[in-house]
Write a structure and sequence with these properties.
alpha/beta; Rossmann fold; 2 domains; 5-stranded parallel sheet; CbbQ/NirQ/NorQ/GpvN; AAA+_ATPase; CobS_N_dom
Length: 333
C-alpha cells in the first residue's frame, strides 16, 4: 500500500448470507490477503440488517454511502467491521475543525534529496486514497468546514476524477476505491443543540450521496449481549440481571431525550463504560454517577435519578460534596 496500486490485489466473491447472516443472495467482492490497513475483527459486534445492506452495496457496487445516527450507535465501527470481514483496507478521517483543505489535497514540503533541500509536493489523504484499493471513511461529516467539503464534492461522483491543480495532474480513481461517511445529523445543522459544531451542508453535496442509511440503537437484548461481551466477568445470572437493569436505564434516558425531558442520553458506549467502572469501583451506583449522572445538567439529575430508582429499586446516594453543600445550606437557613 506504499505505492499507488496499478493492479488490484487478489480478490474473490463472498456470500453476504454466509458472512453476515442476511437473507439475500448477494455476492460481495473481498480481498484474499489482509494488510496493515484492514481493521481488526470484533466478534462481539452486532450488525444492523438495513445498514449492513447499504454498506455492502457501497463495497459491491461502488455506491457512496452515508450512515447517519445519534452518537454511540456504532456508525463508524459498522463500516470498519464490514471492511474487516472483507479484508478491505479502511482509513478513517475525522472532519473536525482542525482538518484543512491542505490536509486533504496536499502541500509543498521541504525534503532532503541527495543531501540537498528541495521542495516536493506531498499528497494529502484524498489523492493518496483515491489511487489505492481502500475504503475512505469521513467521520463527523456534518462538522466539516465549507472549504474542506468542496474538496470532497468532486470525488462523490462514482467515476469522479480528481484534478490536482498544483501538479497539473488528473487522478483516476482506483477500481476498488470506496467512499463512506458518518454524521450525527442529515446536514441540517444543530437544531436541538446536541451536536455543537455541525454545519448546514450544501444540498447539492448531500444529493451526491447515493445511499443514506440511518443507524438507531440496538434492541435491549442485543445491547445487553454486547455489554456482556465487553465485560465477561458479568456473565453470571446476577451479572446478566445487572446489565439488563443498566440497559433499561439507558432506554429511559433515550425516551426522556426524545420527549424533551433530558438534553443528553446514554449511548451503548456509556453503558459499557458504566459496566466496566462498576467492576473497578465495586459499586454500581457510584459507577453510574461517575459514568453518566455527573455529565447531566444539574436540573435534570433528579429525573435521571428517578430512572435509576425505577430500574434498580434503590435511590442514588448523595455524593459527599453534595451532602456537605446541603448541610451548609440548612445550617445557613
Amino acid at each position: 500500500m506504499s505505492d499507488p496500486a496499478s493492479s488490484t490485489p487478489a480478490m474473490h466473491a463472498v456470500s453476504a448470507a454466509e458472512l453476515f447472516g442476511l437473507d439475500i443472495a448477494l455476492q460481495v467482492p473481498a480481498f484474499v490477503e489482509r494488510d496493515d490497513h484492514v481493521p481488526e475483527i470484533d466478534p462481539a459486534y452486532r450488525f444492523n440488517r438495513d445498514v449492513t445492506l447499504a454498506i455492502l452495496a457501497g463495497f459491491a457496487r461502488n455506491r457512496r454511502v452515508m450512515v447517519q445516527g445519534l452518537h454511540g450507535t456504532g456508525k463508524s465501527t459498522h463500516i470498519e467491521q464490514i471492511a474487516a470481514r472483507l479484508n478491505w483496507p479502511c482509513v478513517r478521517v475525522n472532519l473536525d475543525g482542525h482538518i484543512s483543505r491542505l490536509d486533504l489535497v496536499g502541500k509543498d514540503a521541504i525534503v532532503v534529496r541527495d543531501g540537498l533541500q528541495v521542495t516536493e509536493f506531498q499528497e494529502g489523504i484524498v489523492p493518496w486514497a483515491l489511487q489505492r484499493p481502500v475504503a475512505l471513511v469521513f467521520d463527523e461529516y456534518d462538522a466539516g468546514r465549507p472549504d474542506v467539503m468542496f474538496v470532497i464534492q468532486r470525488i462523490l461522483e462514482r467515476e469522479g476524477r480528481y484534478t490536482l491543480l498544483d501538479q497539473n495532474r488528473v487522478l483516476q480513481p482506483h477500481p476498488q476505491f470506496r467512499l463512506f461517511a458518518t454524521s450525527n445529523t442529515v446536514g441540517q445543522g444543530n437544531p436541538n443543540g446536541m451536536y455543537h459544531g455541525t454545519q448546514v451542508l450544501n444540498h447539492a453535496q448531500i444529493d451526491r450521496w447515493n445511499i443514506v442509511a440511518t443507524l438507531d440503537y440496538l434492541g435491549a437484548a442485543e445491547e445487553a449481549a454486547i455489554v456482556l461481551a465487553r465485560v465477561p466477568e458479568l456473565e453470571t445470572p446476577a451479572g446478566r440481571a445487572l446489565v439488563g437493569a443498566m440497559v433499561q436505564v439507558a432506554a429511559l434516558t433515550r425516551k426522556g431525550f426524545e420527549l424533551g425531558d433530558l438534553s443528553t442520553l446514554m449511548s451503548p458506549r456509556t453503558v459499557i463504560t458504566w459496566a466496566e467502572n462498576s467492576r473497578i469501583f465495586g459499586d454500581v451506583e457510584l459507577a453510574f454517577r461517575l459514568s453518566f449522572l455527573n455529565k447531566c445538567e444539574e436540573p435534570e439529575r433528579p429525573v435521571v435519578a428517578e430512572y435509576y430508582q425505577r430500574c434498580f429499586d434503590d435511590e442514588i446516594r448523595e455524593s459527599a460534596a453534595h451532602a456537605m453543600q446541603a448541610q451548609d445550606s440548612r445550617s445557613a437557613a
